[in-house]
Amino acid sequence: MKWWSRWEFFALASAFFAGLTAFLGKIGVMNINSNLATLIRTAVVLVMTVIILLWQKQWTWPQGIASKGWLFLIFSGIATGLSWLCYWKAMSLGPVSKVAAIDKLSVAVAILLAVIFLGESLKWQTMLGAGLIILGAVVILL
Questions:
Q1: What is the pTM of this model?
Q2: Angle, helix 124-141 to helix 106-118, in steps of 10 degrees
């Protein structure tokens, strides 16, 4: 299997770009309303995604998506928007290190929701990792 078709590659790339996002965004959100900053970033993400879809010839009209799929994608979009608005407000007010650390508590929340609602298994390694993330956030906040 090629490295760029593995989920691990994209997960690490996501972590790298999320870290870069926090750093660049902190500079970008200085002296601007955090909600306006979120709008600008969201517009850039939208345009970038359309360009990628067109470039990779993956653009199609979303036909055949079940209503449940639409509903959960819409809810996910709302959750993303609320997360971004809160994140950038926090970023405009606080230090990158603390805001980003608290934001990463989302990993523990995602694990908990996946176990409860998706029936994913909860191995000791997952519990330990989530616990270390929580502990790390607490230590950074001290």
A1: 0.78
A2: 150
